[in-house]
Amino acid sequence: MSSKSKQDAATSLGRRQWLAGSAGALATMGLGAANGQAHAQAQSAASAPALPVAPAKPPLPAYAAWKDAGAVIIHSSSTIETKRQAFGNGLITPAEQLYVRNNLPAPSASILENRDAWEISIEGVKQPRVLSLRELKTMGLETTPMVLQCSGNGRGFFPNKPSGTPWTVGAAGCVVWTGVSVRQLVESLGGTMAGMDFMTGTGGELLPEGLDPKSIMVERSVPAKAMADALLAWEMNGVPIPLAHGGPLRLIVPGYQGVNQIKYVKRLAFTAQESDAKIMAHGYRISPPGAKADPSQPSVLEMNVKSWITSPLPERAAAAGQVQIQGLAFGGQRAVKRVEVSVDAGKTWKEARLVGPDLGKYAWRQFVLAAKLPAGTHTLMSRAIDTAGNAQPEQRLENVGGYNNNSVLDHAVTVTLA
C-alpha cells in the first residue's frame, strides 16, 4: 500500500470514528430529536434500559492490513478466516482472501527488505550447507498448486467447543507455490545421511527471552518421504510470499496440514527422530476425549478427503427452481475421483460434475450439481471420494483439539428458497 493510500485509509477511519462518536454524543444530549421533542426524548432515553451494543469488529493486524476485510472473519491478530460465501468460482484463492494462522507473532517486516539474503541451514545430508535464497534460486524451479489448510479447520462444528479458533470452513485455500524442489536440493547435496527418517523444518520467528526455545518454537517433523514433492518456496500465486504467509521462504509439504508448512523457514534437517519441540511432541496430537496429548498419539500430518458446499448458502440465497449447487473438494494425499451431493439431508445422493481445470492431485476441484428445488427449506450435503476409494465420513473423529474434521454432517448447509 502506498503512503498516500495509507494516509487516505487513516483519514477515512478517523472520519468514521469521529462520526460514530459525534452520533453518540448527539443522542446522549438529545440534539438529534425535533425541537419540540428533544427534552422529553432525552428524559425517556435516560430512564429506559440500555440497549445491547454489538462488539466492535477487530481491525486487520498491521502485517495483514492489505487483506480484504469484507471477505474474512478476524478472530484475532494471528487468526483470520475466509468467509464461506467469499469462496468464488475460481480455483485459486486470492492472497487478500486467504486465511492466516500464526503460532507465534510474525517477525519484523524488515526480513523482507533483502529477501535474497535470507539464509537456511540444510542438515542431515552428506554435504550440509547454509544457503541464501539467492543461491536456492539457482538450484532449480518447480511450481505446485495445492490446498493449504489449518488442521483445526472445522473445529467450530465440534459441540464440546475445543480450545482454539472456532474455524468452520475458511481456514483453507488453494494457492500456487513456486520454489526449489527439496528432493532435487537434497540430491545436489549428496543425499541424506543413513537412518534419517524424518524431515524437520524450523521457523525463524523471534523467540521471547527467558523461555526454553523448545517450549515455544515452531518446529515440525514429517516422514522423510514427503521430500519427494516438497518445496522451499519463495513465491505464492506468482508474487513473493507476503510476511503474513511465511515470506521470504516457506517449507511447503503438499498434502499435509498447514502446521507442517513452516513459515520463515531457517533450518531444514533430516533427522533420525521427530523433533522434541513441544509443538511436535505434545501439540497437534489426535488425543481421545478426556486424554492429555502425548507423543504416543497420532500427530496431525496428512490431510484427509473433504468437501463443502459454497453455494447456495444462507448468506447467498437462491430462488426456488433450477439451482446450481456448487462446492469445493480435495483429497489430501490423493486426487478427488468424484463428489456426490444430497439435497435431502443425506437420504439420496447424486454425482456432481467436476468443473474447471485439474491442477493436480494436491489442488482442490470445483464441483456443481444442477437440481430443481421447490420453495422451502433444504439441507444440502456433499461427500468426496478420492482415487483410492476413501470416502468423506458422515461423522467427525472426536478429539480434544478439534483437528481433522471432514464430517459430511458438520459441513452440510440448510437453505430456505423462496
From TrEMBL:
Oxidoreductase keyword on record: yes
PROSITE patterns reported in the protein's UniProt record: TAT
Coiled coil segments of this chain: none
Span of domain Moybdenum cofactor oxidoreductase dimerisation: 299-408
Pfam families, per the entry: Mo-co_dimer, Oxidored_molyb
Annotated TM spans: none
Residue span(s) of domain Oxidoreductase molybdopterin-binding: 114-277
InterPro entries: Ig_E-set, MoCF_OxRdtse_dimer, Mopterin_OxRdtase_euk, OxRdtase_Mopterin-bd_dom, OxRdtase_Mopterin-bd_sf, TAT_signal
Keywords: Metal-binding, Molybdenum, Oxidoreductase
Cofactor(s), names only, from the UniProt record: Mo-molybdopterin
Domain of life: Bacteria
PANTHER family: SULFITE OXIDASE, MITOCHONDRIAL, SULFITE REDUCTASE
Protein name: Sulfite oxidase
